[in-house]
Design a protein that fits this description.
alpha+beta; 6-stranded mixed β-sheet
Length: 204
């Protein structure tokens, strides 16, 4: 390879897109993608346990919020959240909006006021869910609680925003226990979250 070819390879920048271009592409896409400040990145498909846990928690949340005096809207993983401060759009595994959803520039595919966000973590996503993705959500003023659910063992965490930069974490690892969601004032049994889930026994 000659010097000119090497130089061209080094300086060639990846193609960037506007948010509108991303949304137009996503409407036609077979697979989901996240939007990272001009970059469109494909999201890997989820496995059966992940999908069943997500479905279980959505069911449990719907049952829990139904008798509450406020209206809480429980939404599935097809709903994108837009973080304007970072110009990024991502998909959570589930989210809750209090009373009425707010949209970015009236785009109903971009919610900007989640109260509670759920992520089902795996070995490949755990670091991202606990780190970069959580920090993105923190830029949303409405965001008060983060629920992290492990899919390989019974382990649920609820991170509650006490002040702007202060979070208190509750952890439940007992299948007969319940996780307290303080933004809603309800408790969710782990037996409901992990209903029908069979954990693989580690060979280590």
């Amino acid at each position: 390879m000659n010097v000119a070819a090497v130089s061209e390879k080094i300086i060639k920048a990846p193609k960037t897109y506007t948010l509108d271009e991303y949304l137009a592409r996503e409407e036609r896409a077979v697979h989901k993608h996240k939007f990272y400040n001009g970059q469109i990145i494909r999201i890997p498909g989820s496995k059966f346990n992940h999908n069943e846990i997500a479905a279980n928690v959505i069911t449990a949340l719907n049952i829990a919020v139904r008798p509450l005096p406020k209206k809480y809207r429980v939404i599935t993983s097809d709903q994108k959240i837009y973080i304007k401060a970072e110009n990024k759009a991502v998909y959570p595994d589930a989210l809750i909006v209090c009373e009425k959803p707010q949209y970015w520039e009236d785009r109903e595919d971009l919610v900007i006021n989640p109260l509670l966000i759920v992520e089902v973590a795996s070995r490949s996503t755990r670091k991202y869910d606990r780190g970069e993705k959580f920090m993105l959500y923190c830029a949303l003023p409405s965001f008060k609680e983060y629920v992290l659910i492990e899919q390989e063992s019974a382990h649920v965490e609820a991170w509650f925003r006490e002040r702007e930069t202060t979070w208190d974490i509750l952890t439940e690892k007992v299948m007969q226990g319940k996780i307290n969601l303080r933004s809603l004032g309800v408790e969710i049994p782990l037996e409901e979250i992990y209903r029908n889930i069979e954990f693989k026994i580690s060979s280590k």
